[in-house]
Specification:
CATH topology of the largest domain: Glycosyltransferase
Number of domains: 5
Distance between the termini: 38 Å
Strand content: 25-35%
Oligomer: single chain
Number of strands: 48
Largest sheet: 10 strands, mixed
Structural class: alpha+beta
Bound molecules: alpha-L-rhamnopyranose
Amino acid sequence: MVQIVKVRCEYLKNPLGIDVLHPRISWQIQSEERGIQQQAYQLQVSLEPEFGQVLWDSGRNDTGQSVHVVLDQIELKARTRYFYRVKVWACGQQLEGSDWSETAYFETGIMDYSQWTAEWISAPSVLAAREEDAERCPLLRTFVTVEKTVKSARIYATALGMYELQWNGNRIGDHYFTPGWTSYGKRLQYQVYDVTEQLGVGTHAIGALLGNGWYKGELGWTQKKETYGSRAALLFQLHIGYEDGTEDVVVSGNDWQATGSAILMSEMYHGERYDARLELEWHSGQATDSDVWHSVEIITHSKSMITQQVNEPVRPAEILKPIAVLQTPEGDTVLDFGQNMVGWVKFEVEGAAGHVVELQHAEVLDQAGNFYMGNIRKAEQRIQYTLKGKGKETFEPHFTFQGFRYVLLTGFKAPILLEAFSGIVLHSDMERTGFFECSDAKVNQLHHNIVWGQKGNFVDVPTDCPQRDERLGWTGDAQMFIRTASYVMNVAPFFTKWLLDLKADQTPEGGIPFYIPNLKPEFSEGWGDTSHSSAAWGDAAVICPWTLYEAYGDTRLLEAQYDSMNQWIQYIFEQGSDPYLWNTGFHFGDWLGLDSKADSYVGATDRDFVATAYYAYSVSLVAKAAKALGKAADLERLALWHEKIIAAFQHEFLTPSGRLSVPTQTAQVLALRFGLVSGTAKEKAEHKLAELLKEQNDHLTTGFVGTPYLNPVLSEAGRNDLAYRLLLQEDYPSWLYQITKGATTIWEHWDGIKEDGSFWSADMNSFNHYAYGAIGEWLYSYVAGIQPDEEQPGFKHVKISPQPGPGLTWAEARLMTMYGMVVSSWRLNEAGQMEIQVTVPGNAYATLKLPGAQSAARVLENGTALAKAAGITAIHEEAGSVTLALGSGQYHFTYDGH
Ligand code: RAM
C-alpha cells in the first residue's frame, strides 16, 4: 500500500494569501514496502472540498516528480480558496495506484496591489501632545454591522510599524510582530485572517493597536529611531461574503477613530510600559466621547510595495515554566527559566490599583551570582506594569521581545509563586526537521543549544543575537549557519523571504549590506564609512540560495536569486587591483578568531586571503547554479573565471614548494574546503592544519569564518580522530567548554565566561549567537552522515556515510526532507559489531557507505545476506569499503570488523 501524506503548497499546510501565479505542490509517499518510486501522478483542483466539480485535472502524468510540481495550468483568481488532492502510481515490487491524498487547500490573497482600496490611517498627532503620551501606542477602531448570514470573511492587513488586531476585545489570529521585518520601502508583507467564525449577525468592534516595531522604533547600537518612517499606520481590508452571494468590504478610512491605549511605551529592545488603569471598554460601542476618541488621519503612503507573506508567521511556539526563584547576594529576587530563551514572560499579579511591578531580563548571572545586564548593552529589556487593582490580572507584552534566562522581579509580593509566570517562546513557526542524538550527553546538550540558538534568532529575520541593542540580520552569521539551520528546521520559506530583502537591498553595484534588511548608513557607526560588502558576509547572496537549492531542490528560488548572485561576484570582480584577487576594502576577516592581535576582533588570517578564498567559492557556486539552471554559456564563462581566481590565489598565497603563505588554522581550512589547493599542496595544507592544532594541544583558534568548516575539512582529510577530539574537548576553547559552564544556547565568544567565572568584555558578549553552532552541519552530515546531492537536490538522492569516531559509541540523526524522513544511525554493539540503521523515504533513493565494512559478504541486513535483501539495487566493494545503492525503506545492517 502506498499512501500520500504531507500535501503542501509552497512548503505550507493550507496557506492563506498565496499570491504567486503558479504555486508549487509537493507531497510525500509512504509505504511499508522497499524501493518505492513514483511512476505517475494525478492532481485535481476544485473550488469545493468534495470535488463535485473539478476545476482542473492533470490526468495521469507519467513522471516521478513529487516535489515542487508547478500548477501552471489554471489561472488563479484573487481571494479564492482552491482545494487540491493528488494520487500516485508507484512502483515497488508491483505497480500500485494510491488512494487520493487528503484534501488540502491554498487560498489566494489580494494578488494585485491596485485591489487595496483601503487607506493608510494613522493616529492624529493630538494624541501624542502631552509629554507622558509621547511614546503611547494608539488604538484604532471601527464598528461593523452584519445583517445577513456570513459565508466567509477575511481580513487583509498590514502596517507601517507593528499592528495587533482585536475583535470585540479578543486578539485576532496567532501571528506576532506583524507585518514582520522587510526592507519596508521596497517590500511590505501583508497578512490574512479568516474571521468567518467571529462574524455573526450583529455589531462588531474591530480594533488595531499600533506599535513602533522595526519600522520606527530604535534599531542598531547607535540609539537611532525611525529607520523607515516616522508614522505608524494601518492598512486594513475586510471582505465579507454572505450566504446570499453578495459581498461587503470594510476598509480603513476616515470613519475610523483613534485613542491612546494602555501601552505607554513599547520598543523592540527596551520592552513595554503598560498602565492597566487606562484600559478602555473600547469595543462596547459606548465610549464615543470625543475627548477620548478622535478621527484618524489618512496618510499618503504608497501601496505598490505591498506583497504576500512567504514565510511562516512568528507564533508562540512553546511555554517554559521557571525552574526556580533565587535571592541573589545583592538581595534581588530573580526567576530562573532554566533555558536562555527568546520571547517574553506572561504573568499573573494581584494588588492595589496603581501598584507597579517590573520585570527585567538578562541572560546570565555574574561571577558572584548577581543579576547581570552588562552584555545587553543599551537594550533595557524591561516590562513595567501598573495594576488596575481588580483581582487577578494577567499581562503579556505586544511589540517587543526579550532574550533571557533570568528575570529580575520588582514590586511582586512575596512569596513568589512560580505558577504565576510563563516564558512564552516566540519564533518564526518553521517545521522542525532535524533530530540528533549520540552517546555523549554534553554533545547532545550542544545540539540542544544549537536548536535553541536557531529558535531565538529566527524571529522573522536571521539575527546575530536576540537580546542586546543589535538583533540585526547580519549576512555573515546567516550564511555560516544556514546549512545547519536547514537540517534543524525547514527554513526554505524563512530564507526565501529574507533573500527577497537581500535582493531588494543589494546596491546598484552589486554590493551587499552588512545586514538585511539594511539600515541607514548612519546606524552603522563604528565601521567607518563602509556599510556593505565584506567578504564572507556579502557571500550570503550566493551561499544561501545555493544551500536552499541543495536542501530543498528549490529551482525557482535559485532562478529568482540568480541575477543577484551574479551581481555579487561581478561586484567583487570590480574591487581588486587584480580582477581575480580581492585585496581591497574593508573586511571582518576571521571575525573573533582567537589568533587575533590584542584589542582586535579580527583573527590573524590575512584578510585578502579570506576575501579571495570566498571570492573563488562564490564563483564556483554561481557556476553550479548556472549548471543546475541549464545556462550552458554562463557555466563556461564562470568555470573559466573560477580557474583564474584559483590561479591568482595560488600565485599570491602559495609558496613555490606548495605551502600556504598564511600559517593559520582558518587559512588551511578555507583553502581545503573551497578546493583552492590540490595535489601535494593539499596534502601540505592538511598536514599543516593538524600541526597547528597540535601546537594548541588539539584546540581550535578559528573565528566565525574558519570554525564552520573546521571539522568537515578534517573528516574529508581522513582525520576523524582529530575532528572528534575537537568536538569532545571540554576545556577552553571548545564547543563543550561552554556546556561545562552551563550554556543553554551558543555563545558569541569561545570565552564568554572565563575559567574563573568572569566575563569577556561586556561590549560584545552575547550568549545567544548561532554562528559557532554551525558545527551542527558536521553532526548531521558527517557523524550521522546524511548529505544532499546537488545533482539530485532536495534529498531525492540521499548520500549516507556515517563516520563513527573515537569517543562516541553511537549516534543517530533523523531528518524530515521534502521526500519524507531520512534516518541514519550507527552503534557499536556489545559484541563489538557495527550496527547501521537507515531509512530512505518513498520516491527517494540513497547511496550508503558502510563505515569500516571490509567485505560485503560479511554484512547482514536483518539477518539476511546483502545479495538477498530487498531494496538493495547495487553493491560496490572497493579497497576495503562497501557501498550500497538503496531504494526507499528501512534497513538494519550488522557486521564485524570496525
Ligand atoms: C557583530 C555581530 C555579528 C557579526 C558582526 C561582524 O556586531 O554581532 O555577529 O557578524 O559583528
